[in-house]
Amino acid sequence: MQSPADRQDRHEYPAHWEADVVLRDGGTARIRPITADDADRLVSFYEQVSDESKYYRFFAPYPRLSAKDVHRFTHHDFVDRVGLAATIGGEFIATVRYDRIGTDGMPASVPADEAEVAFLVQDAHQGRGVASALLEHVAAVARERGIRRFAAEVLPANTKMIKVFTDAGYTQKRSFEDGVVRLEFDLEPTDRSVAVQRAREQRAEARSVRRLLAPGSVAVVGVGRTPGGVGRGVLGNIREAGYRGRLHAVNKAFPEDLEEVDGVPAHRSVRDIEGPVDLAVVAVPAEHVPAVVAECGEHGVQGLVVLSAGYAESGPEGRERQRALVRQARAYGMRIIGPNAFGIINTAPGVRLNASLAPQMPRPGRIGLFAQSGAIGIALLSRLHRRGGGVTGVTGVSTFVSSGNRADVSGNDVLQYWYDDPETDVALMYLETIGNPRKFNRLARRTAAAKPLVVVQGAGSAPQGHAVRATRLPHETVSALLRQAGVIRVDTITELVDAGLLLARQPLPAGPRVAILGNSESLGLLTYDRCLAEGLRPSPPLDLTTGATAEDFHRALCRALADDTCDAVVVTAIPAIGEGSPGDAELAEALRSAASGVSGKPVLVVHVELGGLAEALSAAASTAPQAAAQASGAAGTAPQAAPRAPGDANAAPRSAQAPGTPDGTGPSRPARRPPAAVPDAPGASPQHGTRLIPAYPAAERAVRALAEAVKYGQWRREATDPGKVPEYEDIDEKGAAELIGVLLERGQGLTLGEAETCELLGKYGIPVRRALPAPTPDAAAEAARTLGYPVALKATAPHLRHRADLGGVRLDLADEEQLRRSYAELTELFGKPDELRPVVQGMAPRGVDTVVRAVIDPAAGAVLSFGLAGAPSQLLGDMAHRLVPVTDRDATSLVRSIRTAPLLFGWRGSTPADTPALERLLLRVSRLVDDHPEVVAVTLEPVVVAQRGVSVLGATVRLAPPPARDDLGPRTMPAY
């Protein structure tokens, strides 16, 4: 950057303004401040701008920059004069600058709060959203420097630039004078500007993933000269899958006269490939990757899948190597999946890409899969392969991404892609870590409103290589917040696949009412019990007896689906023995035809298989059932490949593969696929909208999947009306802000005293019952006279606080005699008054003791929590959680979400508590921490919820400078 001699800034170089961004077309660029060292770059950039663009910028012909211009545009004080550049490959593609001006339009300094802004974008990069990204970043810089308003003068013919300003969503004024359009707009973010920014973020990140998953051409770098090894294996996988684009094999060790490898064009370098390359699959040792990335960047490759290991998972040296890899790729505008990745798969008919270590292409279907771990990716593909066949067809995969170390492309990016991907109906994700919980929660909520999102979240520490933000929230709290966002949160891969198959094949249930029918009374009763355990409302099972025919099943299912008191049907079936018993194919057709008549109710099958025993019994009795495919659906061999380290000379060779076409673009015949369950032809993918009935080998698995679908369906219905954050006229937001400012002048982190806590909470309409210290019996008596009898005497020492079960609290003391006697008992039992810290407090109406907490987590944001005080919350962890700001509907569900909620609603004849008053208290606490992020922790305990009203008996508040929030700033990629 600048040398000390040249630096003319009033501030040090603001490195925190540097950021990588995803552009509209899915490419990337780097935004950074312009310095005096950029003179040559600026001149080179300007020479590549067309005369028309220069005219639009300067309102006159301006063929070249003078030395004075170059100096002015590269020397900034980073306060009143700021310039930012968007760069690719280290070269400028666009610039923006602002100059602070006064009310007269002339240059000014602080405290002037207006600035004039101007852009210049290289013609080759116009239309990529570069100016929009620069506007977001320069506006954030300006706000940081005390500027509240931008002004821009634009020629009327410069419609692209006018559109950049008008589409940004800021509150603006527009005027026309002397042939120039003048735009003025406030820089304070508005709901519309935030919505515009997030819509652009979604489109850009989705396109960046689409470029990786649907490339027009692929180069595999690191293809061995002999069979075996990762590169040669991946090349074969791509070829055998029937990839529709152009495929190239690259290895610098290829002989110069080598033209093909396995029918695929061979090259010694990516530079030698004629025509564009959209995706490079890198399978070379880590020390050779930088040279490959440089070749790809210079050739214009759009993205990389890096299979190579030896990065952050290997220790500190590998972590630095990984950071360098990301910086290098982003400098060329490329995105990365990996390193240490398992690969990607896209089964779309027009793509058919298997750029992974899985030796077999999955069945095409409607399920999207994401896994950070290669081993988990193998397990997911394998289980979906085995379970992909159902009673009436098969379900397969639309896209699969295994991100490895997740250095760049993450689950958030893939969610952005799946959100509007017409080929994906259900998203399944295995997340070992969540790198940006706040953003993931926002994206998950939006995605879940459109299609089911099922997640297994790892509970352990972050795997080596995964850069994640530290969160202080317990795993259970993060899981609860995901459920609040509509995520179907499951615990195992088996449950992930079970839920995914149901949601991909069946409609969402309208409620929890379940009909059960089948040919086994005991299996029906087991299913009934599991429904009760999962909170469903099952009807008594209908036993069709073991002699039931396919027609009996058909009639029973039709009746159940026609019943208005039924929301879903579980069919239980055991193999029947004897002549006339339905075979699997006959039963499948009977169930399919019955289910097709009613489109709004899901149907599941619990199908117990006896396998070899059934076959043996049939043979012994000479009553063999008719041959049919298994209704539960698995056939063929599941993918079993494990990741191998690129460059491993000892890797086992691939099995023989079918030869490819002479041009190397794919196999000469369709890739082998396992047979599917009847009635579909082998390898066939069901038509979108075809109703497939999922089958489960155990009742508990089917019912658990159904229960998750019921809860998700309820969330979808409620999400259409999320509620509102109410306004309270008695809240003094300004007064609270002034008090917080005064208190924070004392230090960076501060736990407020009792008087300050009461004053701050009081400004939000949260009264705290007064408690007076009682260091002596006489002081206790005086405090009681001040407060008025009856009173409570409490020990507030840390080991006795909120522990009525230990005897540290005496309630309903009606007079001074009882008070003095209780004081003596406490000191006799627990020690001297200075150890007990006794206080006297006026009695509150009897009710249910609860606890309300709010905390600002640096990763997840502000979280409001609620539970019953004492053992339920402390011992059993029975707490419910919601992200702030909480709406009125959130508050209502928060109170009802804990397992011990019945105690608030008249359990066993008790008096119901005033839950509306409790909900209002929760909303006020939410408003406090949302309005003032300096309030980093609030605890109200106990909060007594009486028949009428609530009483806050204890409160603590902690203040601190709020953690930085990057979700409200300009779009950026994670820093590396």
- Termini gap: 19 Å
Unreliable spans are 1-9, 611-689
The residue-averaged pLDDT reads 85
How would you describe the shape? Answer: globular
* Biggest pleated sheet: 8 strands, mixed
- Strand arrangement within the widest β-sheet reads 1-2-3-4-5-6-8-7
Q: What is the share of helical residues?
A: 25-40%
Task: Please identify the structural class as seen in this structure.
Answer: alpha/beta
DSSP strand count: 41
Determine Rg (CA atoms, Å): 33 Å
Strand content: 15-25%
Number of helices: 27
Task: Describe the 3D structure.
The chain is α/β, with parallel strands linked by helices. The protein is built from 27 helices and 41 strands. The strands form seven sheets. Strands 1-2-3-4-5-6-8-7 form an eight-stranded mixed β-sheet, with helices on both faces. The chain has a seven-stranded mixed β-sheet with strand order 11-12-10-9-13-14-15, sandwiched between helices. Strand 13, helix 8 and strand 14 (303-306) form a beta-alpha-beta unit. Helix 8 (289-299) packs parallel to helix 9 (316-331), helix 11 (411-419) packs parallel to helix 12 (437-448) and helix 26 (888-897) packs across helix 27 (915-931). The relative contact order is 0.08.
